[in-house]
Amino acid sequence: MADAEQREQHNHGSGTFVGGDVHGGLWQVFLPPYGKNATSSDPAPRKRQPEQDDEAEDDYEGRLAYLLVSAWIGVSAGLVVVYAVMGRPWTDHQPTPGIAARIGVGLVALYLCLAMAASFFARLAQVFELWSEQCAITATQSRGRLIAKPPASMSRAMAGLTAAAALAAELLASLFGWSSFGGKVAQRAHVARLNADANATSARAATKRPKA
Q1: pLDDT digits 0-9 by tens, 158-212
Q2: How far apart are CA 107 and CA 112, in angstroms?
Q3: What is the pLDDT of residue 140?
Q4: How many CA atoms lie within 13 A of 104 on its CB side?
Q5: Got the DSSP string for 110-162?
């Protein structure tokens, strides 16, 4: 019988010692090998850019609450604009406001209504983006191209809705381009559109991977 095979030991830095080699920290033993060291041929789900992780996670917190609040404020401001245009009193116990008051209040309400509409569409783009991400993850984790097609199609559809909502947000935000509010809303919509497009690309790749 031949002598036992000799293994050359490679120790480079600290880490877990397995079979003669150092394989990184102990945490890597318990986590799946995602990332550049992954051995799986399945396409990995899209991840947000590392330099934007903390900021992006904070911006996505409470997105549904912001969506509802901006919609409520926008609708309320829109009603004030209608009242100002029609010349109706603000309450049943007040006289009809003068033309100067109607113009002043109407302009302020219109400004607020457009700002809330821009914020609403930007948050709506985020909601569609995260939906597209979940569909893309489902597609990439599916064991077969046929099974991956329905969630991949949904991811692409959500990416299209994200692009539409982001475009509306960016157009409205351009009216406030002189302020930090306009820039923040436009950036939020732009990032959501890019992420949704990456989700759709990842999902599409899952439907074209070779059969096992």
Answers
A1: 999 999 999 999 999 999 878 888 889 999 999 999 999 999 998 888 888 665 5
A2: 9
A3: 86
A4: 5
A5: HHHHHHHHHHHHHHHHHHHHHHHHHHHHHHHHSSSHHHHHHHHHHHHHHHHHH
Residue 169 CA, chain-centre distance (Å), reads 14
The model's pLDDT over 11-20, given as tens digits with 9 standing for 90+, comes to 444 444 444 4
- Position 37: which residue type? N
Residue keyed to tokens 């509306």: 168
3 state DSSP class of 185: helix
Question: Are the C-beta atoms of residues 21 and 9 closer than 8 Å to each other?
Answer: yes
Cα 124 from Cα 106, distance rounded (Å):
26
Task: Tell me the CA end-to-end span of the chain in Å, nearest whole number.
Answer: 37
From the list 67, 175, 167, 68, the residue with the least C-alpha distance to 115 is 175
Please give the Cα distance from 61 to 53 (Å, whole number).
Answer: 12
Q: Give me 7's structure tokens.
A: 């293994």
With beta carbons less than 8 A apart as the criterion, state whether 152 and 125 touch.
no
pLDDT digits (tens, 9 = 90+) for 41-92: 444 445 454 445 555 556 777 888 889 999 999 999 999 898 888 877 766 6
3 phi and psi, to 5 degrees?
-60, 155
Q: Residues 167, 193, 47, CA angle at the centre, nearest 5°?
A: 170
Q: How far is CA 169 from CA 1, 26, 52, 118, 164, in A?
A: 74, 46, 21, 5, 9
